[in-house]
């Protein structure tokens, strides 16, 4: 269940905007405008951490592969265990897949 404190007209507008995007390029364009590079990278890193936790990786593995802090990993784990199941929804749809190691293609 979504935290009702998050719901308001502005957040609804943001969600509708994201849902209106059709292509990867449109997503990049939108997120480049709405987020700083650091914010976008942080969100991407949290999704990757969630994917790795969901797959059963240890904190040490996640730190080594992503560079995420243990505080970030703990926060993501708390969301996976006690959150609104947003990460799980995306992960079960197979949207977040392991990154391809460019050296081992």
Keyphrases for this structure?
Trp_repress; YecD_YerC; TrpR-like_sf; disordered C terminus; 6 helices; TrpR protein YerC/YecD; mainly alpha; single chain; 105 residues; 65% helix
Report on this structure.
The protein is mostly helical. It contains 6 helices and no strands. It has helices spanning 9-19, 24-34, 37-54, 59-66, 70-82, 86-92. Helix 3 (37-54) packs across helix 5. 10% of the residues are buried.
Q: How confident is the prediction overall: mean pLDDT? A: 91
Count of individual beta strands:
0
Q: In percent terms, what proportion of residues is strand?
A: under 5%
Radius of gyration: 15 Å
Discrete helix count: 6
Protein name: TrpR protein YerC/YecD
Pfam families: Trp_repressor
